[in-house]
Amino acid sequence: MKALLALSAGIDRLNTWIGRCVGWLVLLVTLVSAYNAVVRKAFNISTNGLLEIQWYLFGAVFLLGAAFTLKDNAHVRIDILSSRFSNKTRALIDIIGYVLFILPLVCFVLYHGSLFVYNSYSIHEYSADAGGLLRWPAKALIVIGFALLGLQVLSELIKKADYLKHLRAEQSS
């Protein structure tokens, strides 16, 4: 179990580092958005590339930040219900949710998303809009984000299993 906990800690460090870096993307997307708004209003100039980079950065914040959010337990929950359960029950519900819902979704997106990115990359797909950007980098963010989420789910499963193991050991003592 020590090796699994070390793996979990490594995944947590990775997603914490990425989450902190992604936080800076919020500043960057704000600056790009402000610049785009100013030049559009003041000089009647706008490009689709600027709009698309805004969308790409905004998407990156959410896709790359999802694993960090899960690690910090900052995702949306129905606290009215979960607060009534014991820690053991919450851990079991989390495990069931991860295994039955999140991991299958992650596997689906990784498989089909990889094909999606590969096809876009192989045909050098660009936005249909004039001055638009390459599409495959934005599509790759989907796969990378879900890969990080899958790793964090693995980390959470390890931590929940360790918690339940120690809980059982305490109860049997």
| Fraction of residues in β-strands | under 5%
Radius of gyration equals 20 Å
Distance between the termini: 20 Å
Segments where pLDDT lies below 50 for 5+ residues? none
What structural class do you assign from the helix and strand content?
A: mainly alpha
Mean pLDDT: 92
- How does the overall form come out from the CA principal axes? elongated
Q: Helical region count?
A: 5
Strands, total number: 0
Q: Please write the string of helix (H) and strand (E) elements.
A: HHHHH
Number of domains: 1
Largest sheet, strands/sense/barrel:
none
Q: Bin the helical content.
A: over 70%
Structural description of this entry:
With 173 residues, the chain is an all-alpha fold. The chain has one domain. The chain is built from five helices and no strands. α1 packs antiparallel against α2, α1 packs antiparallel against α5 and α2 runs parallel beside α5. It is elongated and about 75 Å long.
Can you summarize this structure?
By secondary structure, the protein is an all-alpha fold.
Summarize the SSE layout with pairings:
Layout: H1 2-43, H2 48-71, H3 79-82, H4 87-122, H5 136-172
Helix pairs in contact: 1-2, 1-5, 2-5, 4-5
What are the main properties of this structure?
173 residues, mainly alpha, 5 helices, cell membrane
